[in-house]
Design goal:
By secondary structure, the chain is mainly alpha-helical. It has three domains: about 230 residues, no CATH class; about 210 residues, no CATH class; about 70 residues. It has 21 helices and no strands. The radius of gyration is 24 Å and the shape is globular.
Length: about 525
């Protein structure tokens, strides 16, 4: 499962890099980025909360308690989903202009708005395929087949990469006036339908595993008296949680498009950098949280709140041992990293647009990580109502800070302003969630976490300073090198020396959790052979 998630993230990253090379990062790119994001947002808003939070336990219950091992219940669920998602998708395609108006700035150039509507029409069928993918994947999970759902997104990314390569071959990179203009009908057709094909393939690769799991779908329309209403009521707080998140994100997307409407940075810059920054979270934090949740739930079931607090505190310290140095090193590395990863094709002339947003998103990730992990404690206690109200705080702060910062800054600062707002929102969320959970548990090892945090920030700050010094030397020595060679040299020197400095200081400060996280990502054995680097 972890390997599938990691490869999926990496293949998605390759897709994003190709997207930057093909479309750039101005209004032209935003048209496709918004059109291709809206279907997933709408699916999550309309059905995602119920599908993810409610169906697995209910499917497992039906498998254990029903005479047919949940066959009839699962058939009814899938039939209802096909009818609901199919109807909603048709209505959304018809209403594409209204959908685009909801998510984009009214001052966008008319050609860009028209292209966004065309692209959105081609992409909106993804709502159906997203929903059915999650549902079929959850049916497989309930039957003990966890791997296919983790690996299937790679198929989508492979299709997307192929579509973008074909786009580059046929149409070339969007440079000059094209970088801020609309799309031809052929360009929109290839990008829009190609993206939808990727989501459809993601669903199709699951179907053989469904048959292997011993399930064959047979439509059933006898919904009355089958407990489906109870199933939907169970997810009410999770659904409200999703609505708050999506409402806030809708405002963020609309504000982001106001940046490219005025010729500055916008949604493509924001979403691309977000994907890059979230890679360590997906690989480290999510893996640690997934492994810890059964232990947290067991402590909660036993009424051992002190044990739950100790376990959660340990997970937080371990995750932050990687996330905090990453957060402080990223501002140092953001310029060469952007030039190496994103400075190609259509984005080559505007690669500097990514740098401020990347620098700001690093520290924001640390706040998000702490908030994300504290919420695992509430989930273990099954206190989803509390999670909803905490998320309301996050949503309100995000919208308020984003609106204020975008209004006070110029268009070029739109994307970094949204990243700052994101960090403020999750810093507030982390503070509130930590305090509430600490009161519920009678403490959350707060003093130990503070002492640990001070030492961790100190080690990370030293690493960032060493990295900055190394990069300064490379800039002076390699002034005549080609840009990409110089960027690679800066990245290698600053990154390598920064990591070494962090490991050395972590050893001096006795940050034992660094060893745990290195083992978690699979490099602990290698570093044990290097004297002085293992804390």
């Amino acid at each position: 499962m972890a390997a599938g998630t990691t490869f999926s993230r990496l293949s998605g990253l390759i897709r994003s890099l190709l997207l930057a090379a093909a479309l750039g990062n101005l209004a032209h790119a935003d048209a496709f980025s918004v059109a291709n994001t809206v279907p997933n947002m709408l699916y999550i808003l309309l059905a995602g909360g119920v599908f993810n939070a409610v169906l697995v336990p209910q499917l497992v219950r039906a498998m254990k308690n029903d005479e047919d091992r949940g066959e009839a219940y699962t058939n009814r669920i899938i039939t209802l989903a096909v009818l609901f998602l199919g109807s909603v998708t048709v209505l959304l395609v018809i209403a594409a202009p209204a959908v685009v108006a909801l998510y984009t700035d009214p001052d966008w150039p008319p050609a860009v708005t028209a292209s966004t509507i065309d692209l959105t029409r081609y992409c909106l069928p993804q709502v159906f395929f997203y929903g059915m993918f999650v549902l079929v994947g959850q049916v497989l999970n309930a039957r003990g087949r966890f791997g296919p759902m983790m690996w299937a997104p790679i198929a989508n990314n492979v299709v997307s990469v192929a579509v973008l390569v074909l786009y580059l071959v046929v149409f070339g990179a969007a440079t000059g006036p094209a970088a801020t203009g609309g799309y031809t009908s052929g360009q929109a057709l290839l990008l829009g339908l190609g993206s939808t094909l990727g989501i459809a393939v993601q669903l199709l690769v699951l179907l053989p595993y469904l048959r292997e799991a011993g399930f064959t779908w047979r439509p059933r329309f006898d919904f009355r008296g089958t407990g489906l209403g109870h199933t939907l009521r169970l997810g009410v707080w999770t659904v409200l949680f999703v609505i708050v998140n999506q409402a806030a994100y809708t405002v963020v997307v609309r504000l982001a498009t106001s940046g490219t409407a005025d010729g500055g940075t916008g949604y493509t810059v924001y979403s691309t950098v977000f994907l890059i920054v979230m890679v360590p979270h997906s690989v480290v934090t999510v893996s640690l949280a997934t492994a810890a949740l059964p232990r947290l739930s067991a402590r909660a079931e036993e009424g051992d709140r002190q044990g739950l607090a100790a376990t959660l505190s340990s997970v937080m310290r371990t995750a932050l041992a990687l996330i905090v140095p990453f957060a402080l090193l990223l501002p140092v590395l953001s310029d060469p990293l952007a030039r190496v990863l994103l400075g190609w094709g259509a984005a080559a002339g505007t690669v500097e647009n990514y740098v401020p947003t990347m620098a700001v998103f690093g520290p924001a990730l640390a706040a998000f990580t702490l908030h994300y992990l504290v919420l695992r404690g509430f989930y273990a206690l099954e206190q989803t109502r509390t999670v909803f109200f905490i998320q309301c705080v996050v949503g309100v702060v995000n919208v308020a800070a984003a609106s204020l910062l975008v209004a006070l800054t110029d268009a070029q600062a739109t994307a970094p302003s949204l990243a700052v707002a994101y960090g403020c929102a999750y810093l507030a969320g982390a503070a509130v969630s930590f305090q509430v959970l600490a009161r519920r548990l009678g403490g959350l090892d707060g003093r130990r976490l503070v002492r640990y945090g001070v030492r961790l920030v100190l080690a990370s700050a030293v690493a960032a300073a060493v990295g900055l010094g190394a990069r300064t030397v490379v800039l002076a020595v390699g002034a005549g090198l080609p840009d990409k060679v110089q960027a690679l040299a800066e990245l290698a020197a600053a990154g390598l020396l920064g990591v070494v400095a962090y490991l050395v200081v972590a050893r001096v400060l006795r940050l034992a959790e660094v060893s745990d996280v290195l083992d978690a990502v699979g490099v602990g054995r290698v570093l044990r052979r290097v004297p002085g680097l293992r804390p």
